[in-house]
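Hi U.,

Before I forget, here's the chain from the pilot set. I'm dumping it here mostly so it's searchable later in email.
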Amino acid sequence: MNNNSDKRRIVVTGLGIVCALGDNVDECFKSAVNGVTGIREVKSVNTDGCYANLGAEAKISDSELSDEDFDRSSLLCIKAAEEALKDAKYEITPENSERIGVIVGNCVGGAASIDKYFTDELKNGGGKSSDILKMPASAIANNVALHFGLNGTTANIVNACAAGTISIAYACDLIRAGKADAFCAGGSDSFSSLAFAGFHALHALDENPCSPFNNSHGITLGEGAGILVVESYEHAKERGAHIYCEILGSGVSSDAHHITAPRPDGQGQMLAINRAIENSGLKPSDIDYINAHGTGTAKNDEAEFLSLHTIFDGSDKLSVSSTKSMTGHCLGAAGSIEAVLTVKAVCENVLPPTIGYTEENLETLKEKAGNIDFIPNTKREKTVNFAASNSFAFGGNNASVVFAKNPHEIPDRTNNERIFVTGIGDYSSKGRIDIQSDDYKNLGIKMAFWRKLDRFSQLMLVSGMRALSDAKITVDENSERNIGIIIGTSDGPMTEIVNFQKNVVANGTASGSAFSFPNTVYNAAGGYFSIFAGIKGYNVTNANGVQAGLQSICYAADVLKNGDEDIMVAAGVDEYTDVTEYLYGKLGLLGGKMELGEGAVSLILEKESSAEKRGAKKYAELVGYASAHKSVKFGTLVGSEDALEEAILRACECAGITIEDIDLVCGFGNKKLSMSSCTYVTVNDEIGDARAAGAAKQAATLAKMLNESDKYKYGLAISFGLGGQYSAVILKKAV
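Structure:
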C-alpha cells in the first residue's frame, strides 16, 4: 500500500467488553465460541404478571461499578473502556488528550436512573434531583471522557439497536478526516424495566431463550457495553501499538417503512450492507463471516435471511451467526459487543455459533440456508480475512461495518465540493408551540399518521418537511438514497420516556404501553421523518446537549464530504412539556434563570453539484465547522471554556479565514467573545431556551441574514453542551 493509502487506514488496537457472558474480552469470547449462554431468569426487574421472565443480565453488580454520579449505562461503558484502553496500552497525557475522544451508542439513556427516580417519587414522595442529570443519553460519552480525562470530540449516537455500530463507523470517519487520532467507540445499555416492559407490551419477548434464524419467537433482552479503541494506522504505528485488525468501510441507511418492523423486502438492510462492502473496496464474495443482527423475531429474521441470500447468492464461503443467542439483545450496545466478538473471530480464526438448534431444527435449517453456513450450535474454525457486523433498529435504521485481517486499500470517495444551505424549516417558539392542524395538513400529513407521533417527533416532522419544501426537493426513486438525515437533541423524547416509566412504576412491568413504547427511543423522530418523506439514505440521531443542533450540521457536512450523500437534512429538536418543565424545575433552573422554548429547526445542506443541477436557491455557503471538548462534570461548563475558543479556531482554520474576518456572530444567550467588532445576535429572545433547536436556529438565522444583507460576509454560530462539548459553524455569503 502507498503512503496516501496508509493515511486512510483505521486499525483496532484495544478491546473491552462486559455483558452476560463475562466482564472481560477473553471470558466473553471463550463463552461465545463454546456456545455458553448468558440467558437466565431476570433478577433486576420485577416480572410478576409477565408472560416472559428471561434476560441476559451482566454478572457485574452495581457495587462493583459504584459511582454515585453515574447511571449504570455510563458505568458499564466505563468498565469496557477501561479494559480497552489498558489493552491498547494507550497512556492519556495532557499533550495527547485532545486527540482522543469518545463516541458511544445508546438506546434510552440512563434508564436505571429514570426508574429509580420515579420509584423514589412514588414510594418516598420525591426522587433525588441528582438522579435527573443521570437520565439523558447526553451524559454517557461525557462521563466516560471525564473518567479517563479524554478531551477529544464526544458524541452519543442514539439510533437504538444500530447505535453501537454507527458509533464505530462515525469514529472512523472522523479519524480519516484528520479530526482525531483515536476514539473509544462503541455502545452501552443497562437492563431496565423500561425496555423490558416495552418489548413485553409489543409481545416481542420470547418465553424461552431467543433462537435467531431458528424458532424466531422473539428477543431476549440483554445488557452490557462494548468498546473498541480505534485509531489511525500512522498513530498506532508511531506509538508501537498492537494491531488487532483493520476497519475498512461502513454503510448506514433507512428503511423508510415502519417505526418498529423492518422492510419485508430487506431493501434498507441490503443498502447498508452493500454500501459497507463497496466502501471497503470489496465484493460480496470476499466476505468470510457476518455477525448478523439476528434478533430472533420472525419479521427481523425473515428480512435478514432475504438480505443475506440476495447479496451473497452464489457465495459458498460465507458463514453467519447471531451471538445474541448467548448475549441477548443489548440494544444500543448490541452492535459494539458484536463488533468486539467479530474482531476476535478475525484474529483467532474461530467463529462463534448460533445456539439453540434441535435435531429437528437442523433439518429445517438445511432446507432454507442454501450455501450459507449458519454455524448451528458448534463453533467453526476457519480462516477469516474479511468479516462484517450488521445492526438494524427501530426507526428503520440500518448499519454495517467491515473488518479485515490484513491491510486492504479502500476507495477514496471524499470530495472538496462546496456545501450550501439550500433550505430552512423553522418550527420553534418561546414557550410551547400551539400546534394547529394546518401546521401539518399543509404539508400533506394526514391525521392517521400524525396521531402516531409523540410531540418530539411531530416537531421534527413539520420542520423537516418545511425544509424540504423550502429547498424544493422532491424525494423520489431517483433521489431517495442520496438524501440523509442527522438530528441533534439535548433531551430527546423525555416526555414519552418519563410517562411510560411512571406508568410501569405505578402499575407494574406488565402494564407497559405498546402504543407509547416505540416513541421512547431517541431516533423515533428521524424514523418517522424518513418514513413520511421517503428518505432512505444516512440517518443518525445524536444526543449531545444544546450544541447537538450545531453538531448535527458538522456531522452532516462530514457525510457530504465523504461522498455518502448529495443532500443532508441537519436538524436540532427539543420539546417543552409538563415533564420538561417539571425536570428543569427540580434542577432549580427555572424561575428567571431559564425560560424554556421548544421546536425543531432543519437546514438543508447540499453539495454544489447537486444544488447547481437543481437550480437551488443558496442561502449561504458552509465554509467552516468544528467541535471541541474539555471534560468537566456533566451538568456544568465551568472549566471547559478553552474548548469554546478551540472550536472557533478550528472552524476558522477549516474555512481558511481568521477570527478577524468574522463580522456576524450568533451565540448562546448574550455571550460575547473577545473578537474584533462584530454584530452579535441571539435567538433566545425569540424562542427562549429551546436547547438543540435553538442551536440549529442560530445557524438558520445567520444563513438568512447573509442572504438578505450585503453588510456581512462571514457568520459564526457557536453553542455548548453541558459537560464541555462545543461546536462552531461558519457560514459565508453565497456568491
